[in-house]
């Protein structure tokens, strides 16, 4: 059973990082958003520094929505989903392994890239560290929330936008606590621990509930 | 081991494909499901695999080693080859072996059986339709599963590939395996029976 899950994880990761796999697109999109915002706001560095963590979080949120719909629909289109359903492993665990691979391929690079992009916004070292840390803890919640949307997208030929529209409202709490934790770390009235623990809790809860909901959706839709 | 289907009904999109369908497939037996396009051949295979839920009736695999479901005792080769173009042929097979907890035959041996060993390391997207089909069929060999569900297994296969498939299926049958194949071609399996769907006389 562990071997099967490891195989699913390794396969999805290999596909993501090979040519045309789309693992790098999220980071490039993240870079594009963060670069464009200063053009809209103007050359006001103190303002950029103040709202920098929020910009980085919004950028990471939007970037993590890219490619979500492909988690299951790519397997659905080439017949691999049938094979995954025949595995002697509950599909919930396979969905969790696929979600984990998707996070390593798309979520983790965002957390790693965030401090570099933060330099563009004039953030100081403390803020850069806080953004990276909160994204590291918060992006799994985005991925595993998205897993449910990805499962629903299997039924739709062009489900990408719909997944984004479905998931974005659900991701609002993650965004709120993520930005709150970052601001708290930089120096605010709220203690850092409270919002940080909440995003950690959201990540853990979605890690458990997301795959269960996704597997239920896949079974229902494919019937 | 015996596959037992009783009073099975299948409804797809409010359209009844068949009802009151019953048959058994014993160990070492092959069932050829034939019938016109749209008669429900593929749906029947997907019902047996557990991808679809029957509108009525039941499907049981008797005498298995307490498998949790028919699906985990079955290999399914459908219209789609389930081959990942970004991975090589060997990687595709190695994945199937790990997924199904196989180990009986090495992935290399399965590739060799279908004459794919020279193509093992190139990305599967470079393979032709027939070679992809061979790769999908090679999956039958990476893990021992008693029930083979084959949906048009010979499509895109050349004469040599069809012979290989036939030989493999006959080996599987003589080892007590079960084969249910939806087909238009008259496949000459050993101990074969035919189930004709459609025309209201299912």
What does the largest sheet of chain B look like? Answer: 5 strands, parallel
Number of strands of chain A: 0
The greatest interface between two protein chains, and residues involved on each side, is: A-B, 27 and 30 residues
Indicate the percent of residues in helices of chain B: 25-40%
**Helix/strand-derived class of chain A?**
mainly alpha
Helix content of chain A: over 70%
Structural class based on helices, strands and sheet pairing of chain B: alpha/beta
- Name the beta content range of chain B: 25-35%
- The succession of helices and strands of chain B, N to C, reads EEEHEEHHHEHEE
User: How many strand units of chain B?
Assistant: 8
Give your account of this protein's structure.
The complex is a heterodimer of chains A (223) and B (202). Chain A is mainly α and 223 residues long. Chain A has helices at 2-17, 25-41, 45-65, 70-78, 80-85, 91-120, 125-153, 160-170, 172-187, 193-222. In chain A, helix 1 runs parallel beside helix 6 and helix 2 (25-41) runs antiparallel to helix 3. The model of chain A has no long low-confidence stretch (mean pLDDT 90). Chain B is an alpha/beta fold and 202 residues long. Chain B has helices at 41-49, 89-100, 107-113, 129-142, 159-174, and strands at residues 2-12, 15-26, 30-34, 56-62, 74-77, 147-151, 178-182, 192-196. In chain B, the strands form two sheets. In chain B, strands 5-6-7-3-8 form a five-stranded parallel beta sheet, sandwiched between helices. In chain B, a hairpin with a 2-residue loop joins strand 1 (2-12) and strand 2 (15-26). In chain B, helix 2 packs across helix 3 (107-113), helix 2 runs parallel beside helix 4 (129-142) and helix 3 crosses helix 4 (129-142). The A-B interface holds A 1, 3-4, 6-8, 11, 14-15, 18-21, 77-80, 82-89, 222-223 and B 49-53, 68, 71-72, 74-76, 78-87, 91, 94-96, 98-101, 139.
